[in-house]
Amino acid sequence: MSNVQPILLNGTWTASSSAQSIQVSNPATGETFPEHFPVSNWDEIDRALQAAHEAFLTVVNWPGERFAAYLEDYALALDAHKETLAQIAHSETGLPAPTRLAGNEIPRTTNQLRQAAQAARQSSWRIPTIDTKNKIRSMYQSIGPAVLMGPNNFPFAYNSISGGDFATALAAGNPVIAKAHPLHLRTTLEMAKLAQEVALKHKLPAGLIQLLYHMSPEDGLKMLEDPRVKVAAFTGSRTAGLKIKHACDKHGKPVFLEMSSVNPVYMLPGALTERGPELVEEFAGSCLLGAGQFCTNPGLVFLVDNPSSQAFLQGVAEKFSAAQPQIMLSTQGRDSFHQSLKFLQKEGAQLVVGGAVVDGHDSKHQPTLLKVTGDQFLSKMTQFQEEAFGSSSLFVIVKDVAQMIVIAGQLQGNLTGSLYSSRDGSDDEIYNRLAPLVNRNVGRLLNDKMPTGVAVSSAMNHGGPFPATGHPGFTAVGMPASVRRFSMLCCYDNVRPERLPVELQDKNPGGIPRFVDDQWTTNDIVTN
Amino acid sequence: MSNVQPILLNGTWTASSSAQSIQVSNPATGETFPEHFPVSNWDEIDRALQAAHEAFLTVVNWPGERFAAYLEDYALALDAHKETLAQIAHSETGLPAPTRLAGNEIPRTTNQLRQAAQAARQSSWRIPTIDTKNKIRSMYQSIGPAVLMGPNNFPFAYNSISGGDFATALAAGNPVIAKAHPLHLRTTLEMAKLAQEVALKHKLPAGLIQLLYHMSPEDGLKMLEDPRVKVAAFTGSRTAGLKIKHACDKHGKPVFLEMSSVNPVYMLPGALTERGPELVEEFAGSCLLGAGQFCTNPGLVFLVDNPSSQAFLQGVAEKFSAAQPQIMLSTQGRDSFHQSLKFLQKEGAQLVVGGAVVDGHDSKHQPTLLKVTGDQFLSKMTQFQEEAFGSSSLFVIVKDVAQMIVIAGQLQGNLTGSLYSSRDGSDDEIYNRLAPLVNRNVGRLLNDKMPTGVAVSSAMNHGGPFPATGHPGFTAVGMPASVRRFSMLCCYDNVRPERLPVELQDKNPGGIPRFVDDQWTTNDIVTN
């Protein structure tokens, strides 16, 4: 087959021995791009695993500085190719090149790489803990080869060769095997070329950064179960995520999974009375952004049945009707979105506005608003918590606040939960009853704010209870915490001083904050 | 049935409605104690779950101080009843009352409770992280009802109503449902009475601390899968542990599992040449301690085939022959130990010394030394890594250092790994090749030290890669890290200042170390 792209295997761009391949299309035109990307067979997956395994033994004692320097240079390379990369990604995803991609997502991505570099350099994620009396010292350290599987909706910021998982897995000192997402294979290849060039310049071992495009689901799970893989990360559908989780769980391997979220928004009565029109703007802006293709799209809204809520619903419906349908990430994604909306309607949700695919080859769907009563919702909790990935939301019109509280106590885990309340304090009593229920059921609790927009901040938690993720103690965003997803806790008991990792030795030339004899300090340890 | 003991359900000592019960025996005499302990049915498990669920809603916003004060008073109560408790536990476990129990384990247990109290009071486990610019604040918080299942070998320090899991689950602010271990039901009941008395004094909600003795395996797994349970901890056999893991994994619930470990010891050639007799003492002391019934018993020793190793083996064999067999925790435990030793021999291990049950009703077994060659070990890696829980060790006589390294790279995860090397540096090259392999395969790497003896230290890691535990990022021992096993990460985005948890508000009257705008500080936040 002509035009088959090479895989990045053990430091070399290598022709795949597989006869199978996949291609990617332009969602704005339906046109298929000429490049073929191999579906890797087990032989080459095995070679990648072996190379990663060997690379880990090479870098296991490297200081964070070497990874930091690499990440920063790679960020520079991405910045330098920003316009080209944005154009390629635009052609694969339909996302606006100047505003969303070059203007926003690529800078966010290189910022993440730089923050990860800083975490690697400062060892802030390691929590070095020292007990001088007992001669016991411990900290988080690299764990080994990481398999990364990014989602469809962020060709840069969550891409397995450039995104948050890549940045943090490497910052922790782990080899990375990136699996491309099938919707942006060309973008991924282009970045991997840069990643590889910079890796050569930095003399990284051959198997430290590798790229495979695709594989059979069976081989993918076999790879995750292989003892040479020590950790994995996945962002995508719940169906795939649960299979990946099971494969890793069987072997007790840490795996970070982000597996869909409906992000409940609770509109308390006083807030709607006080500032309904303002909230219409806020909600519609959030739900229409990026064709609603965000993990944090506000997909479920709770409103008490009263005139203010009706006005809010009416206002949002008007906004949705007036909104221009946007190009979605793929025609498959649009069709899957449509199926999810059909499913919700089949279960009894009433269509308020939208609901239809837009004719044409440009992957568009009408923004869609659905509604159910609180009683309906309670009778089919599982079904009505199904995510529809696009500009849509299910409004749940509850009888009263008591019903809202009952539902809040029974919802599945989500990435976020938003509570809007009045400024005059009239909602405070309801807030105080709802907040603890929502708080422990989500990764991030918001007040008077929509969940879209995930700041890359040390205090961010982009995580949450199952089934939103696989474990409520970890976050995909925010340094240094997100680095710890790719680590293990290592303890040194009576280990001779010169054999300790530098971060645990008496001298602390890097001024790392360390927990020494139960106190945080950046000082050297002076022993008598 | 007469003499059936009540369960601690929803704050009240309650007669079980179950017709089934279990009893406990004295391992030193074979005598069965008269008390019956109910096997709880689903109805009472369900009531316990509901009570725990409701208790959580009551305490969800309580400051750490309230849990701290409880834990400290409970520690005082245990101290005050130390002699009685030690006698009861001695009669159930055969462990020496004055030295091991009253003299060592109970003080360790109350020390753990006090360290957990300090962690709760100081919020040191929460890692409060604040981004003032973006108005995002996050920290680890309580997660909800915890089911705790302790092991047979520590009637106090790991008991589900007094041990490290109990202390840390409560310190994090979670309700606890303790399941007693069947080998020390009377001890557990006695402590639960104290726990309950102190709870009443502290006006804790009724469902915060509950005790069930036993249940069917099916009901146990059903309990773990119930949505009201949010986290669990288990220390015990791999067979049970894997079932518990699966039940929790299905629902993405954090679970800390300690599931057996053989704790490899690598005796490098120079160390044995240099100080063989000293190492014989050290090894035999560790392996014979407490009848070898420790998670960290040195169960696997690697030696290069040479005269020093033969002398070491001979020396240990003599120590084992001369050692007085000790009362084991139970006759069942002794029999199970014996079966494990038989299994290893069936697989080809050669008996060096010991191997037999000691006649009589006092649950004794000879200390046992087995050996295999490195080739044998490599041909049956899984079999020869089976734990035999008692005073025994499998010596692996490898051909050469290269074979030792090959094996080290393929071992299962363990709690600990010990490397003994010469003081003159002649083993350093071997050490440097072995250490990275051992390091990433264990929770704690030791130099010139046996793994038994787990200091309760902030820097301790009593954890490790699967299958020793369920996740390599968590530890069962060491405050504050072990508290985080029972927590989730909670983020507050734009949440109104007065609604934030106290630890995340601008004022920091407790002087908690917080990571504010990427710097550790104990200061208040001054916003303009």
Mind explaining what this structure looks like?
The structure is a homodimer of 528-residue chains. With 528 residues, the first copy, chain A, is of the alpha/beta class. The first copy, chain A, has helices at residues 42-59, 64-80, 82-93, 97-122, 164-171, 185-201, 217-225, 238-249, 269-288, 307-322, 331-346, 374-379, 381-384, 401-408, 428-439, and strands at residues 7-9, 12-14, 21-22, 37-40, 129-131, 136-142, 146-149, 176-179, 209-212, 214-215, 231-235, 255-258, 264-267, 300-304, 350-353, 368-373, 392-398, 414-420, 442-447, 487-493, 514-516, 519-521. The mean pLDDT of chain A is 97. Chains A and B meet through strand 5, strand 6, helix 8, helix 15 and strand 19 of A and strand 5, strand 6, helix 8, helix 15 and strand 19 of B. Strand 19 of chain A pairs parallel with strand 20 of chain B.
- Give the biggest beta sheet of chain A: 7 strands, mixed
CA-to-CA gap between the ends of chain A? 71 Å
Strand numbers in spatial order across the main sheet of chain A: 15-16-17-14-13-18-19
List low-pLDDT spans of chain A. Answer: none
- Strand proportion of chain A, as a percent range, falls in 15-25%
Approximate shape of chain A: globular
Q: Let me know the number of strands of chain A.
A: 22
User: In percent, how helical is the residue content of chain A?
Assistant: 25-40%
Structural class of chain A: alpha/beta
pLDDT averaged residue by residue of chain A: 97
The whole-angstrom Rg of chain A is 24 Å
Largest contact between chains: A-B, 75 and 76 residues
| Oligomer classification | homodimer
Q: Count of DSSP helices of chain A?
A: 15
